[in-house]
Structure formats: structure tokens, C-alpha cells
Amino acid sequence: MSTITNPVLKGFHPDPSICRCGEDYYIATSTFEWFPGVRIYHSRDLNNWTLAACPLDRASQLDMRGNPDSGGIWAPCLSYADGLFWLVYTDVKVVDSPWKNGRNYLVTAPSIEGPWSEPIPMGNGGFDPSLFHDSNGRKYYLYRPWGPRHHSDPHCTIVMQEYFPQEQRLSPERRTLFTGTTLRYTEGPHLYQRDGYYYLVVAEGGTSYEHAVVVLRARAPEGPYELHPDTVIMTTWDQPEHPLQKSGHGSLVDTPNGEWFMAYLTSRPLRLPGVPLLAVGGRGYCPLGRETGIARIAWQDGWPYVEGGKHGGVQIQGPETANRDASPDEAWRDDFIDSTLDPALQTLRIPFDDRLGSLSARKGFLRLYGNDSLVSTFAQSTVARRWQHFRFQAETCMQFDPAHFQQSAGVTCYYNTKNWSYFFMDREEGRGRTLKIIQLDRNVPCWHLYEEPIPVPEEVSAVWLRVEVDHLSYHYSYSFDGENWQRVALSFEAWKLSDDYIGGRGFFTGAFVGLHCEDISGDGCHADFDYFSYLPG
Known about the structure:
Keywords: Glycosidase, Hydrolase. Pfam families: GH43_C2, Glyco_hydro_43. This is Glycoside hydrolase family 43 protein. The record marks 128 as: Important for catalytic activity, responsible for pKa modulation of the active site Glu and correct orientation of both the proton donor and substrate. The structure is a single chain. By secondary structure, the chain is mostly beta strands. It folds into two domains: 19-239, Tachylectin-2, Chain A (5 Propeller), CATH 2.115.10; 332-536, Jelly Rolls (Sandwich). It contains one helix and 41 strands. A hairpin with a 5-residue loop joins β20 (245-254) and β21. The longest helix is centred in the C-terminal third of the chain and has 4 residues, at 499-502. It is globular and about 75 Å long. The two termini are 29 Å apart. The model has no long low-confidence stretch (mean pLDDT 94).
């Protein structure tokens, strides 16, 4: 029997939807504006998880050009029935408005690796869709409506429509299943069947520290539903010192021998001995984003309860059939020898194609072609991976010969188009190639090293760039030979690359570290990266 240590998916992995196929468990998580859309992980013991699929990997399934920050893929739902995997998802096109707007779709596949189908439209009237497969063969589509009357408070409804798969259409009849509790922000519905009851699991309280899981039950899928005796079965709102915060947005799964577990969203605030919480944002900032945890579920009088208390727990007992402990975190490195990007890497909004870069133009290198700057929501040549640790070092070796100041390439620590830092090389008239840093903090720019940039000797063909993150802060370093490193005498706040600093509700991702090349002149340039490494500290 194993011990599960939370979070099981570290770094930006929110809104987990868990399902089982035989003895195999799968979790799908939101990816927002990062491409490919949706990340699906596989496990045999609920403890050790590996990336199994990124199903929305082509523009015909997901076109996010121009999507706003924290738009794109919200809260997918993964299920298995009738010999198929079913994935429903929302592509959010409008965020910063009186009400949000998006499009919902369904894709299917015979195996988790695919091939995944072209999308079936499922309407634009809501978000956080899920698909329930009743034991009698009928299928029901649930979601949270939105629009001029359904943004947030007081309209917190969960709606259900029957789905007819043979005709690929929804019934026009809509049934309201639930109108929320006083916690409000009702969303993320999932429906389950057990011992003659239908259980409706929803998220409430918003996606920050007030987050919670609420459960109801009924004798029929259309209701009427009664609330759980405790209303809330999971939250950490009443435990500000708990290491796992923001816990909510749960989904249930049973094991082959009848045990029950819940995958849920959680976050780890930055906390250091001797540093008051108020110094880092009340309960703390979470630059690693919203992560995924696992809780054990016990049933009492026909109701689910989280074992060990509503907070879930940092460590829980795994399934009885499991006997493997979690493997330690490992260093990661990509030497760009494969024909496709490493699955740890993602791009912004659009696929990695010949417009953004190439893995074959120069063997053993990632070539990025200059495109839009880091403020763009269209064509950025940015290839990045999640921060998954509070302390780590990321490094690359770059060869780049810019023609002027509108061409640049380097390393970025990135949250969204309005919050990032960028350590890069460009070319200045009268100075040649130079290293500089730009920082955007809540869309306010700061040009570091512009008065006294770091000169790159003309005889140098390659420059090594490094970022070192250490809890509250991070630093950039450089080397002209790969051995003698110079730290830039500037410190940046790691906690600023978090939902909590940037805006709370309405921003939903996490910090990334990545490689970037831009050319806003249109003259054409490229940068070659020999490797990209990530070493937890």
C-alpha cells in the first residue's frame, strides 16, 4: 500500500477531471492559452503520474489566435464509456468584459493516445462543461451558464441537457439542477451514480482561497437535489496555516475494488520561516499556479466525506492495490534531438510549426524564428515549461546574430502578456551585440541595463543564459564560455508571477520559464538553442 504525497501534479495543473478505464486512471487538466490544449496524465496507483496525451494538438481542434490571457481551455471533462474516451472543453474567447464568452466542444478517441476526433460543437452558452454517461445508456451534458444574466452573483446555476451521440446534438430542453449556496461562483459540475443516487459535485467560492467542493444528491439525474449535510466537503478557507490552499474543483473516481478518491485543485503559497505571511500577500502568493491533489473519500449514510478532514491532507493512504511510492522529482533537459518538441514544452495560443521554429533546420538545435514580442496574443515564438518548484535553475546555450534593436532572443520568466521579465540579446548602433533585461509588471515596463548594457564580444559565437529561482526572488546569469558565470546584479520578485499578485479572480495560470525570439521589423531572423535544462534545487 502506497502513500500519496500532494500535490501529485506539481506546477500549473488546475481543474483536474479524473476517470478510470479498467485499472488505468487518467486526469485531464486545464491549459488556458498554452498549446497544445488539455494535458492528460496516466497512473496505475493514483500516485505516480506520467503525461499520456495532449489531445488538442491541431488548429482545427483549437484555434486560440488572439485569445486573451487566461482565455482558451477552461476546465475540461474526461470520461470513458462505450469503448471511447470523451473530452468536453471550453475555448474562452472573451475574459475582460461584463461577462465572459466562449465555445464548447466534444472530441472522442478510441485510446488515450488518440487519434482524437475533430470537434463537435456543443453550444456557446456556458463553461466548465461535463458529460455524464448514465447506466441506462443516456448521456447528459452539464455546465454553468453565462451571459448578461449569468456571469456570477446572484446567478449561480448548473444546467443540464440530454445529449444524443448518434445525432451529435443536444436536446433543446434545459433543466436547472442547482442554483448555488451562499458561497456563490457555482461551477465545475460533475455527475456520478452510486447505489441508486445521482451525486452532483460542484465547485463554489471562486478559484482563490475561498474555493470549496459542494455535493448534492438525487434519485434521478434531473433532480430534485438535496444538499450534503455539511454542504461543503472540501475547503481550506478556515485553515489559513495549512500548506495546501485554494482546495476545490473536485472530481470523483472509484477503484476496481470499490474504494473512492477525489482529484482536486490546490495551491502551495510561498512561505518561509521568519517571513510574515502579510509580507507575501496575506496567505501567500502561488507562482507555481493551481496544482492537482488526491484525497481519499469515505461514504457514510449515502454521502461522501473527505477522510482526515475537509482540507484533504499533504499525505494520504493510496489504494489498497497500490504498492509503489512516488518517484523523486528529476532534473529535466532537452537537447533537441527529436523531431518534435518535448511534451514538457508548450507554445502560446498556436501550434509549434514552421512559422515559429524548427527542430530540423539545424540538427541538435531548436531554431526559433523571430515573430511577435511577448506582449502579443497572436504569433509569439515562445517555447516554455512550467515552474514546478520554488527553487530551481533553468539554463540554455544560444547562438544569435541580430541585425538591430528590433530583433532579440533570450530567456523569459513569464506569467502572461502583461507580467514577465526577459533577459535577451539584441544589437545596438555603436555598441554591437548587448545583453539587457525588460520587465513588465502589471503592464508597466522597466528597461534594465539599457543605460549600461552588457557587451557581447564580437568573437563570441554562443552565449549561455541562466535563471535561478529561489522562493521569493530570482536572478539571471550569463557566460561567454559555459564555465565562467556572471550574475546580473538585479533581483526579481518570483511571487509577482502569480494569480494572487496579478489579479486574483480572472487570472488562472502560473509561472513559466522559456525561450523566446522576436523580430518586430519583419526583416527575418532566427536564434538557435543548443539545449534547455531545468534542475530543481
